[in-house]
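[Automated response] Your request has been received and processed.

Submitted sequence:
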Amino acid sequence: MTQEHEITAPKTKAKKASPMIEIKDLRKTFGANNEVLKGVNLTVNKGEDLVILGRSGSGKSVTIKCIVGLIEPDHGEIKVFDENVLHLSKEKLNEIRVRIGFLFQSGALYDSMSVRENLSFTLKKHQRDLHESEIENQVMEALESVGLGDAIDKMPSELSGGMKKRIGLARTLILKPEIILYDEPTTGLDTITSREISELILDIKHKRKTTSIIITHDMACAKLTADRIMVLKEGVIHAEGTYEELEKSEDEWVRSFFE
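Generated structure:
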C-alpha cells in the first residue's frame, strides 16, 4: 500500500511595506563652508508622525525642503512612495508633489486673495476639469475640517496668526495629500493656539490616515503629535526614540530639550 502524504504550499514571508519616506546620506552645504547636512538618514513609515527636533540652523527645515525639491541637496538619496525623487523628470516629480502637502511657517497665503480664492486657486491649478460648484464644495469642506468655514470671505490681513496657520493647513488638505510636511506649525503662536494646532495635526492624522514629518522646537507639540522623535545635531541624526525614551536619555544634550 502506498501512503498518502498531504501536500502543503511552502510558507512565504509577508513582504514588508516600504517606508513612505526614506532618506540616505543626505548632505547640503551653503556657500563656501556652511555644511548644514552632513549625512542625514531617516525613514518614515505609513501612518506615522515623525517629529524632528534640533537647534536653530541645524538643518531641520532644509531636510524637508529637499524632499519636495525646494532645495537641491549636494548628495544622497530621497525616496518618496518608493521613488527616488532626485532622479525623476519634472513631470513625474510634480505628480509626486501633488501627493505631498507642505505647511510653511507663515502659512504662505496670497495677501491679495480672499480665503476662498487662496484655496480655489490651489485646486484649479492641479485639477483643471472641476466645475465651479465642485470647487466651492471642496473649499468649504477643507475650511470646515480646520474649523474655519465662516472665514471663507475674509482677507489674510483680517486673520490672526493661528487662523492663518489653519487656513494654510486647509489649503494643504484640499488636495488630499498622503504625506504632510509641517515646518514649525506652532511658531509665533500663544500656548492655547499652539495646542489647538497640535490637536488639529493629530486629528488630521486619525481622520485622513496621513503620514507626516513635523519640524518643531515646541516640546508640547512634539509630545502630543510624535509617534517617534529624531534629534538633529551638527548635521546628522544624533538620537532617536519616543518622547518618553528621549526625555530619560543619558545624553545630557538630548535631555536639555525636555527641561
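Summary generated for your ticket: The first strand starts at residue 21 and ends at 30. The radius of gyration is 21 Å.
If you did not submit this request, please reply to this message.
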